[in-house]
Design goal:
about 375 residues, alpha+beta, five-stranded mixed sheet, 6 helices, about 30% helix, elongated
């Protein structure tokens, strides 16, 4: 059953309402408008009444001084508007804070704005352009950035709008509760084709959405996965889960507090990871040197998002405690000097097996070199 769309559902100046947040915002808007019209009408009627009632009736008429007590009247016209204004402020603040704080169970989508299109990635990795399919009744959080200029992601039916800024992430969320197709606009002038930067938001039944995710090809261009980028960009030569690591271990990092070399701390969220990729010297972790090169200009925003999602998926070190290194990836330089002529060679590539290490296939323990 579809929620009630209100008494102005067909009015051209008022778009349809497709979320609970939209109804809260509309209720506040129309209540504020009604109260404003009510008091404006009273003031206008009294203004004309006093103009007629106390007009000058002949040329020599002089007005009389008011000698009564006006304290009650003055108090009323100060206190009553103050109470009404504070009430609207508290009401609006409650809606604002609700709109600014996505629920913990919200499904996170990534949005990249680019002249003149919206590129959207679902939690499952499915991608689409200028269309956003969402299930009804599921809170949706959009983590957004831009590849070029400032855009603004605007869905009138949800009553949500947030600027999309290059070099940072902004967040918007909504919970659609009405099936249908709704407009998606860029509400910030972004160049010659700004008016063509439009799209659609399709709200689907949850079962239909799952079928759509599983079977529909959207035609959006593919992007290498985060794991592939992590290997092809040689990230795994330094970010390793063993003692040879020259950079912080990333497994289990996402969402944790990081101690920085300058004594400050930072939360390892999407913004922190993005900054560490494009400007690694901005926040250096305690105990490590700023040796990481910048990948600014080498990775698109879509590829950065894939790396962020890969780091977010790292819940624990991989089995075996090592990360496969591609053949084309440069290996980290050894920290110990190479032995001179005639010096005995020693193995330094791996530690000796401990008491709990598995035995070789022959079943005999390894021999020690004398």
């Amino acid at each position: 059953m579809q929620p009630h769309q209100g008494f102005l559902r067909d009015a051209p100046l008022f778009p349809p309402r497709a979320s609970e947040m939209a109804r809260d915002i509309d209720t506040l808007f129309f209540t504020t408008l009604g109260v404003t019209v009510f008091f404006s009408t009273i003031i206008t009627v009294l203004l004309f009444y006093f103009m007629i009632r106390y007009r000058r009736r002949y040329a020599g008429q002089i007005g009389q001084d008011f000698t009564g007590n006006s304290t009650l009247l003055e108090t009323a016209w100060i206190v009553v508007p103050l109470i009404i204004s504070l009430g609207f402020f508290a009401w609006g603040a409650r809606i604002y804070f609700a709109a600014a704080r996505p629920p913990a169970d919200a499904a996170q989508y990534y949005v990249v704005g680019k002249q003149w299109m919206w590129k959207i990635e679902h939690p499952s990795g499915k991608r689409e352009i200028n269309e956003l399919h969402v299930p009804r009744g599921q809170a949706v959080k959009l983590k957004m950035t831009s590849e070029d200029v400032i855009h603004s992601f605007y869905i009138p039916a949800m009553r949500v709008k947030t600027d999309v800024v290059p070099g940072k992430y902004t967040t918007l969320w909504f919970n659609a509760d009405t099936l249908g197709t709704y407009h998606l606009f860029c509400s910030q002038y972004c160049g010659a084709e700004h008016s063509h930067m439009v799209g659609r938001v399709i709200v689907m039944d949850p079962m239909e959405y799952e079928l759509w995710i599983a079977g529909t090809d959207t035609g959006a261009p593919g992007v290498p996965s985060g794991e592939e980028l992590f290997a092809s960009k040689a990230c795994n030569t330094c970010h390793r889960p063993d003692t040879t690591a020259r950079a912080p271990m990333l497994w289990g990092l996402f969402g944790k507090t990081v101690q920085l070399a300058d004594g400050q701390t930072a939360v390892a969220d999407e913004a922190y990871i993005r900054e560490s990729i494009v400007n690694p010297a901005a926040k250096v972790v305690t105990g490590y040197q700023p040796i990481m090169p910048t990948y600014r200009g080498q990775l698109s925003e879509d590829e950065i998002i894939q790396l962020i999602r890969y780091v977010q998926s790292m819940r624990g070190p991989p089995a075996g405690g090592d990360v496969p290194v591609p053949a084309s990836a440069p290996m980290p330089a050894a920290s110990a000097p190479m032995p001179g002529p005639g010096a005995p060679m020693i193995a330094v590539s791996a530690p000796m097996p401990g008491p709990s290490a598995p035995l070789p296939k022959s079943g005999r323990p390894p021999r020690r070199l004398k």
